[in-house]
Amino acid sequence: MLSALVLALPALAACAAMPAVLEERQSCPNIHIFGARETTTPQGYGSSSTVVNDVLNAYPGSTAEALVYPACGGQSSCGGVSYANSAAQGTSTAASDINAYVAKCPNTQIVLVGYSQGGQVFDNVVCGGGDAAEGISSTAVPLTAAAQAAVKAVILMGDPRYVYGFSYEVGTCRAGGFDARSSSFQCPVGNKIQSYCDSADPYCCNGNDANVHQGYGAEYGQAALTFIKSKLSSSSGSAPVSSTVAHSSATSAPHSSTAVSSAQPTSTSVGSSGSVPKYGQCSATKGCVAGTTCKYMNPYYSQCL
């Protein structure tokens, strides 16, 4: 009798642990969205909220979370964290959060929506390749193999890493952002990405209308949702539905109340005797190559145009 009881103990222990594992698996949604906001916007979803909410409305039962990172460019309102440190922190945190989420919920389909600096963060995370301007030297994709497979769709809006010529780009920009990738770069998951940028945008392109930078949700939100739907499995258990009902504050992405300044960029006094190439980031001590001028874009960067 005693030996039989001893033999039964491991089985009983396993049974006792099963409800916790089952509960964890049952709490995993079919679709989970990570949203990353733009620079100087308070913690939350910022302008990524338009697409985040569109997905939440289209797929009942899906969930979302906002990436917690500085989203700063040296301003006192966000702690004075430099743009480079903020983007690097965001990249590291996003990779860690996505890897951890997929480890917990391996069958959940992941959607990433990044706006401006948030777009740069998710660009770094899914494409790798390093980001020298932001101090990221490793060229490896920082996601696990499981996480890379779980990420089904990536929406980038106003991404400073934009450069014209990639297959996944949408919009009128024919140049590049202030931290543009090399035109020869190849993202390993380009088929999962849509990157939106218009020519008048001074952040992802070489324009001079900051208002354009804030308009991608309204202009391309439905196109982004259509792309996301095309990438999500129809057998996920969360079939898309048409809905205009807003989600409760517990699940929906709040819209940002902070707008990017509409001030027009102006030329700085920096000469053209430097080594920073066209579309590169310049400063009072880093001049542009001949034929270009260092133009002030916002409080955290200037660009050779």
From TrEMBL:
This is CBM1 domain-containing protein. It comes from Meristemomyces frigidus. InterPro entries: AB_hydrolase_fold (IPR029058), CBD (IPR000254), CBD_sf (IPR035971), Cutinase/axe (IPR000675). GO terms for molecular function: carboxylic ester hydrolase activity; cellulose binding. Residues 277-305 form the CBM1 domain. Residues 253-278 are annotated as: Disordered. GO terms for biological process: carbohydrate metabolic process. GO terms for cellular component: extracellular region.
